[in-house]
Design a protein that fits this description.
mainly alpha
Length: 94
């Protein structure tokens, strides 16, 4: 009988200096974890951090000031934007 709840896994292989391998193995032992669990956990944390950093929008001081000014005093809507609002209003009313 096949187990329908099994998770899909992928294999990762890496060559690393023996000194780094020993260091990671010792760190894993100090935490009472297997080397595999230690590496997976560290990789997951690094991936989450890298994605979060990439998702953050960073603006220079000048860009921050421009953004704030635009939010406080937005420009008048262009004719195309007015037409889009009117079309949206007609579609929503129906």
């Amino acid at each position: 009988m096949a187990n329908s709840s099994h998770s899909t896994t992928a294999r990762l292989e890496a060559r690393l200096p023996a000194e780094l391998h020993a260091q990671m193995k010792r760190a894993a032992e100090l935490q009472g974890r297997t080397l595999t669990d230690f590496v997976i956990s560290a990789a997951r944390e690094a991936a989450v951090r890298a994605i979060a950093e990439a998702d953050n929008v960073r603006l220079s001081r000048e860009d921050q000031e421009r953004f704030a000014a635009a939010m406080l005093s937005p420009p008048a809507p262009s004719p195309a934007l007015r037409r889009a609002f009117e079309r949206h209003a007609r579609l929503v009313e129906e």
